[in-house]
Structures are given as C-alpha cells and as structure tokens.
Fold this sequence. Notes:
- It is a single chain.
- This protein is mainly β and 1197 residues long.
- It contains 17 helices and 55 strands.
- The chain has a 55-stranded mixed sheet that branches.
- α14 (1021-1027) runs antiparallel to α15, α15 crosses α16 (1128-1146) and α16 crosses α17 (1182-1195).
- The protein starts with a helix and ends with a helix.
- The model is unreliable at 1-26, 134-145, 346-364, 533-551, 867-879, 1146-1177 and 1181-1197 (pLDDT under 50).
Amino acid sequence: MRVVLIIVGSLLALAVALVLIVPAVVDWNDYKPRLTQAVRDATGRDLAIDGDIGLSILPTPTLSAQGVRFANLPGGSAPDMARLKALDVEISLMPLLTGTVQVERLVLVEPFILLEQTADGRHNWIFEAPAPDAGATGDPQEDFTPPARGSAIQFDNVRIENGTLIYRSPDAADQRIEKLTATITAPTLYGPYQANGTLAYQGNPATLEASLGSLEFDRPAPLSLRLGLAERGNLAFSGSLQRSPKLSVSGRVEAESGNLSTLLNTVFGGKTPIVALEQKLALQGTLSATPETLALDDMLLTFGAARGTGALNARLDGTPTVDLVLEVGRVDLDKIMGDIIAQRGAEPPARAQGQDQPQGRLQGTSSGLPSHLPEDINLSLDLTVEAIDYRGRLIRQLRTNFALEQGRLALNQLSAQLPGGSEASLLGAASNGPDGARFEGSVEMASTNLRDLAEWLRMDLSKVPAERLRSLSLQSDIAVDSRELRLSQIDLRVDSSKLTGGLTYLLQSRPSFGATLTLDRLNLDAYMAAVQQRLAPVVPEQLPRTDGAAPRPLLAVLDSFDANLKLQVGQMTYRGQQIRNITIDTSVLEGVATIRDISVADLAGARAKLSGSLAAREDAPAGELLFDLSTRAPGQFFQLLNIQAPVEPARLGTLAVKGKLAGTPTAFDVDSALSIAGAEMKVTGSMGVAQFPPRLDLVAEGSHPNLAQLLTAFAGRSPTDGPPLGDIRLWLTARSGETDAMAMNGRIEAAGGMLSLAGDVNPFAPVPTFAVQLEANNANAVRMLRVVAPNYRPRGDRDRPFMLNTRLSGNVSAFDLADIKLQMGDIEMAGAATVSRSGNRPKLTAKLTANDIVVDPWLSDPDRAPKSKMPVPVPVSGPQGWSREPLSLAGLRAMDVDLNVEASAVQLGEYRVDEALLALLLQDGVLDLSKLEGGLFGGTFMANGQLVANETPTMRLSLRVKDADLRQAAASADQPQHIRGLADFDLDVNSRGVSQAALVGALAGEGRFAVREGVAEGFDLASVSAQLKELDSAAAFLGLAKAAFGGGETPFQRLDGTYKIEKGMIRTEDATLVAAAGEGKVTGVIDLPKQLVDAQAVFTLTEHPKAPPFTVNFTGSLSEPQTNFSTRALEAFIAQRAIERGLMRLIPEQVAPDSGAAPATQTPATPAPTTEQPQSQRTPTPREQLRQMLPRLLNKE
C-alpha cells in the first residue's frame, strides 16, 4: 500500500511540479539555467533538460520538454533519481482567461523514478530543503493547507505512458513496477481523484484501480484501492483518508492469493517454489494507519484449511516496533503435503545432468541464525497453534513467544507436545557479539513412550526388543552462533543408561567437533535381536575390488574432519560378556589421528590397549601404532566377538597378541607376535599400499615344543595316546614380485616328516589365484597317520614310506591337482583331480590309477590295538546285532564327488578283485554307485546302487555275480566248503531308515541264485538211496540218515532258486537241488533283523519213487542253526516193506512163547514191551502173534 501511494504521489508531484512550477520560472531555452538553479535551491539537487523546451499560447496553450533528468542523492546506485523522455501539456485557453487552469491533456512519456535506501540508511526522496522562514513553525501538519476552492485547477486527462518505478534497498531484491500506463482525472486539485491503469510488477502483469474523494480538511475522504496480480493474488482496501487532526487512513483491507508460494516469489523475485506454502491464502482485517502508527485488528488469516485470528500493531516513528499476536486452531499438514504430492508428484525434480552441487558452505553447517540481529526494528511474536496433523498424529500446543528489541532476541517460549507422551521446549536469548548473533539457552525433552515417538518419526525399531527404548529425558544448555554449536551440562537418560558431558560442533565447511562424555552403563544385549548370527568366514571373492585401480587409502577418512573425543564407559554388556572401564582419549587434526589412550580394563576377561598415531597424509610424519591384548579366558573373548572357537576354548590356555605398526599410511613395517595354546607365532616385514596390488614382504615363523600337546588343544587328542611326536616348526614367506602375484614359500616340519609348498599366489585378483607345488613326505607313514589317529596300530611292518607330490593351480573357486603321485607303503597311485567351489558345495572330480592295493597291512591289528572304550551296540538277537544309533551321513552333504578309480587288483584278506573299476558320483547328498566291477573268484561281478542322505536315508543296491567258483570263495573266506561249483547270483534290494537296524528292518527286494556242476558237502544222498534197498528196519534207517547227513558229499546237476525280501525277511519257496540220487526242495525264512532262520529241506529219492520224502529242519540262530530230521513217513514205509518181505518168515519164529531169536541176518535186540501182557500161558492167536512181532521189527537194527 505504501509503495502504491509513493507511486501515485510521485507521479502527481512530478506532474504538478512540471506543469505548475517549471513554466513559472523558465523562459524558453534561455531560461534553462535559471530553472535548474531554482530546482537546485529548492531540493539541493541538479535538474537537467537535455532537449528543447517548447511553449505556445495559441490556438491552445501548449508546453513541451524533452529529456528531463533529476539527479539522485550523492552515493546512490544510479546518477538519476527521475527521468522523463517527454512532457506534453495542453491547457484550455478560455478557462485560463477566467483564472481557471483546465489541463485538457498532460502526457508523461516513459517516466522513470528510482526510490532508494542506501547502505548508510539515507533515502533519496528526502531532499535538503532550504532553511525555513522565521515565521514558519516547522510543523508539517500546520504548514499543510488545502488549495483554496477559488484557485481551481482541473485535470481532464493525465496520462502516463510506459512508466517505470523502482524501489531499491541494500538487503533485498529490487521491487520494480514497469510498463506503467495509467489515466488520471481530477476535477479539482483537491479531488476527487480517479486512476486506472496497467503495469508489470516484477515482470508479472497487474491492474491498478484507485479513487480518492475530495480532500476536506475536517472531513474524511473516501479511499479505495484495488491491485490485481492476475491469478497470483489481489489486494483491496476500502476506507477513508482523514487529514485532521493528523493524516490517517482507516478501513477494511482484504488480500487473497491462490498460491502463497507463487505470490512470494512474485513479490521478492524468487524462482524456486516453496513447497510448503503452495496453499491458498486469505487475509482480512481492519486497518488504521497514521504516519507514526499502523494497526491491523480483527485479523482473520486463512491458509489452506487452517484458520487463525490475531492482531498486528506497529509504531513507525523512531525505531519501528511491530507486535503480532496470532492464534491458529488446527493445521492439517498431512493434507497440505498430500495436496502438494498430488499436484507435483512424489518424486523431486531431477538435477540436470552435469549440474554441479551448490558451492560454498556445506549443507547442515549453518546455525540458522542471521549473521547480525537487526537493531533498527523491534519485533514481538506470540503464536499459538492448537494442533498440527502430521504423519497421522497430532502435535499439540505449539507455542512460541519471542521479542526482538534493540538487537537482542529473547526467546521466552518455544514448546510443543509430541506423540508418545513427549514434550520438547527451548528457551534462551540471542544478542549480537563480535562474531555475529549468538544464542544461549537451554533445551529440554522428555518422552514416556519413546517407541511410540520413534514410530511416528518413521524410525524402524522392530529389531530392538519391545521392552527397550521406552523412556527418554534430555536436559542441556545450548549455545550457537555462526561459528559453533555447543551443548553443555548434557544429561541424557534412555531407559536405565545415563550420558553426561558436553559437545561442541564447529559450523564450517570442514566438519569439526569435540566431545567429553561419560556413559555409566549400557546393556547392548538388551537392545539386540535374540538371534545373533555367527560371523561368517570372509571368502576372498567377497572382498571389494578396484579392478586394478589404486584403492582409496584406508585412512583417507581422517583427512575429512577434525575431532577431539574423550569418552568414559563404566560398564557394557555385549553377547553375555561384561566390558568394564572403557577409555577413549583421541583426537584428529589435519589428517593425523593421535590415540592417547584406547583401553579396556576388562574386555570379557581380557585386557586391551591401543596407542600411537595414524596419519592420512603423505607429508605427515611417520606414525606408530602399538597394540596389546591378552586373556586367560579366550572362550569369553571369542563369545564377545561372536566367533565360533575351533576347539574347546579351555584348551587354548592364554591368548596374547602384541605388536607394532610403524610408517606412513602407504608404507609401514609390521612387527607382531601371537601366543596361543603354548604355540608362538611371529610375523615381521613391510607392507606398501600406495599402489594396487600392495607390495608385501612378510615372514612368519611359528613353533610349538610338543606337537602332541598342540593336538590335544586343537584336536582333543589325549596327551597319553600315541607315540611321542616331538616339536612342530613352521616357516612362511610372502614377497611381491614383478607381477601382481606374490612368491610364496612355506614349510612345516613335524612328526618326522615335512610338508612344503612353493609357487605364486595372487590374493588381489578379482578372484584370487595360485599355482603352487605341494610336496609331503615321511619315512614312517604309520607314524604320520598316528598323528591324527593315535591308537592306530596296523598289522605288519611300520616302516612304510609316505610321499605325496602334486601341483595345485587355479583360484579359490576352482583349482586343479595335476600330476598326483601318492605312495603309501607298497601302494602307488597316480592321476589328476579338480576341485570346484562355484556351486552350493565344493565338488571333487578325480581320476586315479593304482597298482595292487593290499588292504590287510593297513588294517588295525586286534592283538595290538587297545581296548575300545566305546560301548558295543546291544544286539537284538545273538551275540551281534544291528546298531540303532542314527546313521551319520552329514558328510555326504559336505561336498560333491565324481570319482573314477582303476586298480590292477584290490585284495582284502583272501578276497582278491582283479582289474577293479570304480565309478561313483556324490551330488547334493545323493551317492550314486554307477559302476563297481572286476574279477572275483574266477568269475565276474558288477554292482550299482544309490544312497540318499535325506532326513530318513534311503538306499538301493543291484548285484550281479557270474561264474564264481564257490570252492575258491569258501577258501578265501576261510569257511567250510559246503558247496562247490560255479555260481551265478543276482540281488536287487532297497530300504529306508535312520539306523542300521531300521534299514535292515525295512529291507525289500528280490533275487536269484544258481549253482551248476556242483557238489554239496556234508551229506551223502546217494548212500541213503543205495542202502535203503537193503534196510527193513526203521531204526536202522534213522542211523543211516544221521550218518548220511553227518558227512560225505552229494554231486548235483544244479542248485537254484529265487527269493523275496520284505521288511528284512528273506523268503524262498522254490530253492531246488537236483542230484543223481534224488532232489531236494527248500522253503523257509531268514529273519535278518532278529538274525534267525526257519527253513525246511524236503528230500525225495529218485531210485525209490514209492518211498515218501524225508525232511531236514534248520532253526535257531542264523550263525549256528539247529538241524532236526523228520522221517516218520519213511519209517512207516520201511516197516510196511519189512512186513511184506518177512511176515511169513517171522510168524513161525514167534509161535513158541519162549522164542526170542532173531533172524540169522540180524543181531538180536531186546524186545520191546508189548502193549498188552498175556493173562495166562496159552497159545496166542495169529492176530496176537502179529501185534507182538511189529515192535520187534521196528526195533531191529
């Protein structure tokens, strides 16, 4: 409003001055000097008329001037305060003759006015007027009198064409009104006035409408003003102007804008949208203003959906003072942000490609305070916001009250209630100092539900247990200026932990801070998830790579900030271990870190200390870093680091690490020592990391005086087991060469043997590579094996040489073992293998050849082996049984194997397999035996099968044996030769189970066997058939049968049959023996789970087709079955035949009662008692004689 009044007043003043004053003092062009001097006398500044002055009286008085300039005040930003390209005035002649000045037309062409406030506070519109007359009072109100109504001056048409008005101040952008084209009318010099026009404000088109009533000294004049900025906003005032007793304006003011951000950018010349202000704005109020005061009462402010009320009061005389009171009900910030997102989209505008980041101060380094608090204005604000909707919750009772007076800001209150039962407040004062404005005060914050507050702030605390992060309180003094932010007297409490001390952060482009803090206790376990993953081993291919470029120095971060830190921690709990008395005293300055003391008095049972200095710059002095750690409880220390100890930590004894690193960040020397479980290891050398790969020259030496003790610690070996092993020594060197690879040499001497390697290793390739020769030898292979198996005592001579030689080449993902040469005693193997680690598990592919592999010398000697301390599984039946211990098949999932082996022979005991071939594939826990074949017992055999290591293992096996010599098989097994001949054997079985017992109990399948041209030993079936022709006594047959099955042999043409297996039960129904003297049929069941047999062999004699068969039963233990004979039917047959042959011959011999003689061909036997005794001495009847004879027949031998 003030700018508009200045514009209108300036234009009218210029027009009046040009029309009324200039013609009165100028006499054509010759009078220019007198005119300019008159203006200089009146204003103290120069007036220049570069063009001609024209004046004509008839027919119409006309005045014209070209190129008029009015000087600016000294020190202004431009030489001219006002310029006018041309002035044209036409005055009606007849009214002029009557004393009335009727300006018919007044045209100002391209007028230019600059209103300016200089840096020293001067205004160019205030002129150095001449000293007042003696009679003047000096009161502007008393000097101002309206023109007399008799001196009528009338403006019919005042026109401004393409005018420009600029307002300029030293601390703000120019306010520009350009392209001003307006028409002004005034019936009299004292009004009423009307003005209409168009203009461009800050480059934006606008319209102007104004009217002012007649200026009466004792009555208010109606005043209205409307300024339109198209869609950017509108300003309207409707009221009155009062000249008495003081000049004043009062009325109703209304302003509105569809987008406050756009309006502000229009007013202040900004171009970047202010997202939060892209809302509708409406302002209404009652305005009353005088030259000294301004008041806006009954103010109603609408911003978006928010509504507020308040009042504004200002005093403009002396030091301006502005007081604002504003009360806002509820602000829906979520809706405001939602509208913005809906209008603009959620994604921020992308930075143009190649556009640089802003230069200058780093983001976040400003204090937020102005460099200097204004001292030429007083301000006060009392703002209350009842509620703010933000992120779905409410911020309540936002209150701020501050007062700025004479350059001192008093922040009496800044507080709010936040979600989670939280409150925050800030109070203090700011004033100007030598380094600019400085604020000092205090901050407080408290929360009874910290998790709720964090959830509102979109902080993910899901990994922190629910019972933690429940409460927070903070009290601290705060001081901030343009140089630093300082927090002192900090008292921060979170749950049961308390942090005290102070912190200073320098607000500059290089981050710098200092802190002195004390933490009483912290239970980290309570804030961590229950499940903690073990530290996985770092595989080289997971390390960051730079593709040959030199890596950024590890310490480069130290050159990016300065710091000074002192921290004391009383007690910390981590992974169940206590850490006490932590001290950190260190500083970082200009790229050099000085570690005065980093120590822990009790680090889970260990003591640790670190001191020295580290430099990030090459021009800094060489640094030195000393470290020392020791513990007698390595188990606690490993648990703290979440490392799975390779062995029982109690076996490791004292663990100590000590050493020094000295040098620059790119080249330093290493001198370190490690002691664990009685072993000593020292690493010395140098490292250069200025280039990539780094240059290394390291030597490692280690030893232990007793290898057995070392194995006791790391392998759980009993120190009394096995022979003495002596000491162990290790040497290893690694040196960088001309290429990226390092030359590596190493040797281990232990247990009378040696292991060495030599070759190139490149651990810095994208996938680390190596090519080394590996050699191992020991004159006593048994001694070497007893290192890992101390109770191993094989048969035969112990002095058997061991030798291994191979070349390893490849990378950590896949490597080859070429030219493998292995000797174990008399066994020699050769071949090649590859190992791949690219899949889910390592895979070994090998193809080997061997000479005769004699296994017996490598088997344990039961007479020399110590008694086993392991319990023997309790058998189900018999002295041995199937183990019920779960099968340990985890090894089948540890790696994949593709193995092919060819051996000239494999011999175990008397079993010898010639030209043995083995092909197996182990993949994903499935062992496929695709081929196992060779020559066995003069015949051939082939086998294949599968074992699946599932939760419940499954197996299948197919076996084919052809032309096997059973005599050779029995001799090889050192078993009685019950059957001789050539045998074929087929077997197909499958099963599933978690133990041996379960697998045997679930065994299912089928098979067949066939023996041809054989001999069955242990019985003589032909003898039974031959002697049966002469037998006429059942008792004699029993003796003969027992004798026949107690020895002898029976040749047969064939012995074959089939069998089925179900649930571990082998059942046959058709086993058949075909011999010259007879045939045998075998049926029965073998119970493998219980190790029992129940079988029956039924023999028939081919030479006695009418004779019934006899049976042999096998029952009981599978290892020692009981044999029982069943011959009742055959005995009856013999008795019947005996009756038929000798009845007539035997009856006469039985007529005499005293007769007891047997036939001449048989030995008499004691007669068996008869079933009925005679009652008296009489001659028996024929029937009775037969009944007495039968028992004798049956008892004859």
